[in-house]
Give the backbone structure.
Amino acid sequence: DTGVSQDPRHKITKRGQNVTFRCDPISEHNRLYWYRQTLGQGPEFLTYFQNEAQLEKSRLLSDRFSAERPKGSFSTLEIQRTEQGDSAMYLCASSPQGFAGELFFGEGSRLTVL
Amino acid sequence: DAKTTQPTSMDCAEGRAANLPCNHSTISGNEYVYWYRQIHSQGPQYIIHGLKNNETNEMASLIITEDRKSSTLILPHATLRDTAVYYCIVRVNQAGTALIFGKGTTLSVSS
């Protein structure tokens, strides 16, 4: 499968613990996006990378959230000191150079904070 | 980005055309209309986009009014697998600009 891959697909954690999600974009896609989606809502934009540079961050990305894309390939999204309000689906998407409109989404990582 | 308005939900009989409307009365001249859909428990999937001309691909047709203030996504022969949330998004066609999703329209296709 050459689509966007996310790991883990499901994560259950206790409040206060740290969690990390990984996203492997489609090969050679230089743009990578993170979104968060809660039940009944559309995906909310969190942050965007072009290669290894983080070019845009939403105000939703509090200081407990950090995202990296160290070599311009895979990306990680870490949430520190998780809260129950962090429970959501975390979606990753990638897009290739030159085409701005079509984002390819992974199937997401579902986080449940107890 | 311009704000869009979509009905919360719609029903469609299998085999019939599904016409999903979207209002974007404040759209700017350089903003495109994009449609995505999200099947339950999956990530969103790109369907189609357009600027001012009508567009068609293997999945759907996009009809944009002449004043560009509204559009309609048409699924010509809806199937049960088309049951999903459909999002209409307007934004400039600029690399790196994030897509901003609203709540979309939940389309239920029944037999």
